[in-house]
Fold this sequence. Notes:
elongated
Amino acid sequence: xxxxxxxxxxxxxxxxxxxxxxxxxxxxxxxxxxxxxxxxxxxxxxxxxxxxxxxxxxxxxxxxxxxxxxxxxxxxxxxxxxxxxxxxxxxxxxxxxxxxxxxxxxxxxxxxxxxxxxxxxxxxxxxxxxxxxxxxxxxxxxxxxxxxxxxxxxxxxxxxxxxxxxxxxxxxxxxxxxxxxxxxxxxxxxxxxxxxxxxxxxxxxxxxxxxxxxxxxxxxxxxxxxxxxxxxxxxxxxxx
Length: 240
């Protein structure tokens, strides 16, 4: 029989599901940003060379730190599904279907719920979930992990030599912009929404006409489209 989980229950059972995985571990979440606790748990499972697959669908939240960490663990496979909206966490004997993304702010601040299914207690339901998980996996594409870092600014001497030259506009993803401002991405999205530069649409953020007037653009990255913010807005955000 399936067990209902509240916010704390989802986090607790997810940790147990990862720790108990002996053969396979599939983590399916549109938004992928891992906290330290989950990184430690995944790294521990990777030591046993089990089949670990992360499937995600939103490139904006694959930040450089997570990319670098995943690159250090070649036994963890990364797949991308452009239409992914489901959140499901699965091993060879348990499954969790939930509203919670593998996104650190979901785990810390949001109100979540879900169901826990044990293969021993409800094999028919577990097999239905298994079948759907395999379908999502087959419909996903393998992604090579790349690390993108924002280059440091030139030294003062070099800047002075180019003082009269107009520097080209630099664009930042939400993750890179939050690091530039020294805030987390949740605070950044809240600020951008307050300025009416973005608006919420289902589980995504949509660029508004006000945001476009500020110079923001929709760009295509390696894994899909994202909102790119010009460096000119940094001072404006700080002032406000």
